[in-house]
Amino acid sequence: MDAAVEKDTGHGALGEAERAEAFSRLREHMPGRTPSAKGPKDQPDPFRSVVSCLLSAQSRDVNTAAAAKALFALARTPDAMLKLSEEEIARAIKPCGLYNMKAKSIKRLCAALIEEHDRVVPQTREGLMALPGIGRKCADIVMSFTFDEDVIAVDTHVFRVCNRTGITNERTADKTAAALERLVPDWARRDGHFWLLQFGKTVCLSRRPRCETCFLNDICRWFAAARDA
Question: What is the model's pTM?
Answer without folding.
Answer: 0.85
